[in-house]
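We include the entry.

. . .
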Amino acid sequence: MQDGTNCMNETNTPKGNTSGKKRERRHYDAEFKKAAVAHCARHGGDLSRTAGELGVNYWTLRDWVEAARPAAAPPATPRTVVELEAEVRRLQSELARVTEQREILKKSLGILSIP
């Protein structure tokens, strides 16, 4: 049985620390955070392993990884039938224009290649 001096509580702080002082907060620069996220990605996204290797808290590393992810696009709003029909008309006219341009280029190639 232990005497209690080496026991750790849920926050991994010694139980004997009754001075009321909090641990000093560590600050990491942006370069270190970026390197930590890259290191995590190289190891298949294993946060626990990477956090242990770098000596940072799991949740801190998780926050860095989340922040490094690109922001998700907002969900597309449903469009009305009128908006969809207008888009179909616009795309049909664009297709007709591009098809005509292609035909003109094909004809000009044929004319230019005649000796």
